[in-house]
Amino acid sequence: MRERQAAMTGLQRFFLKTEIVFGPGMFDRLEAFRGQRIGIITDAFMVKSGMVDRVRAKLPPCEIKVFGEVVPEPPLQNIAQGARFLADFKPDAILALGGGSAIDAAKAILATLREMEPSRSIVMIAVPTTSGTGSEVTSYAIISEPERGIKHPLRSEEIIPDIALLDPELVMSVPPKVTADTGMDVITHALEAYVAREANDFSDAFAEKALALAFAHLPTAFANGNDVVARGALHNASCMAGIAFSAAGLGLNHGLAHAIGGRLHIPHGKINAMLLPLVIEYNAGTRGEFGPCLPAATRYAEVARRLGLEGPSVRAGVKSLAQAISRLNAQFGIPPTLRALGVDLDEVARYGAAMVQGTLADSCTASNPRKPTPDDVAELIGA
Length: 383
Ligand code: NAD
Fold this sequence. Notes:
Strand content: 5-15%
Radius of gyration: 20 Å
CATH class of the largest domain: Mainly Alpha
Helix content: 40-55%
Order of helices and strands: HEEHHEHEHEEEEHHHHHHHHHH
Bound molecules: nicotinamide-adenine-dinucleotide
Distance between the termini: 30 Å
Number of domains: 2
Number of strands: 8
Shape: globular
Number of helices: 15
Structural class: alpha/beta
């Protein structure tokens, strides 16, 4: 803690832009858009499953055009396609409906539309249907370049949504595997924000609450997707973790996840979950080492204590946290290694150097409390 206070000598800033609306009648907030033009940005599943129609029925009478072709981990071409589709429609508002992929695509499409016509103001509304990325409140959009095996984290306050509607009813249909992957993404966001270089009392408050809610409710939401209390708590946790990392930044876990996931096409939450116990111990200096703990260890031990995990010393606290995450992964069927996931290890070897380079160049890695060397990264990828 003392180390963190010492590091905090510069100007600190905590910025909140999004109006977060939840609870019964939340869609009434959109009454202000009566008679206007709303461009809905979503994916094919949302259209086919009837989710788009369900949401349309809650909107006031207005002109609507639906771009329903967002693909998972959206590439640049997908953004250009969406912007072309909506440009002539001249929307007053963009409504992103879906998981992180749809919301990130909407953010990038919005930025493109604003570039095309800078004088027009377009409101951004985000309606998340997974509890994972927190994209409804963050300054990030992750856009991929699959041909180069790269995921780019774009970061700008301009793309933070203006309004977020948190409706747990829209998350009920998420299957258990996706609930687990996205739920572990929430835990990764909150933990990375908690130990990030720019963490402060404000981001800590959101990270701590997000962790408490996610640890308490993710197992229930996984086992019983219809449990509205667990779904609601997890949906709030996802949003709070988003507020925390949007302010404090992320870390090595996400740098690795973007480099590995972009190349080997592993779902974002799953690869984050697999890496998390390893990265915790690496950052804390407790990974198979017996020297003194590093500064982040105190922060992890603090989280372990808050979560009621045992740990008579800082080292034991870190270990208990890493083990608790490994236990959750095991409970959800998330394998501990790339080998156990069935990834072609020849491919890992072939792209190893590119993945190390990608991790070190990723802007998330810069927020990590421990500066990794290329050898450290190679070892974590091969673990
Ligand atoms: P996703 O948006 O890719 O969705 C995963 C799958 O779940 C899709 O097939 C989707 O159709 C389906 N799905 C979504 N909602 C559903 C529902 N209610 N019922 C049934 N199925 C549903 O997954 P995600 O994990 O939400 O987002 C991942 C993307 O977000 C990645 O590209 C990741 O890099 C990015 N991301 C962004 C941020 C950010 O701050 N912008 C943070 C973390 C991750």
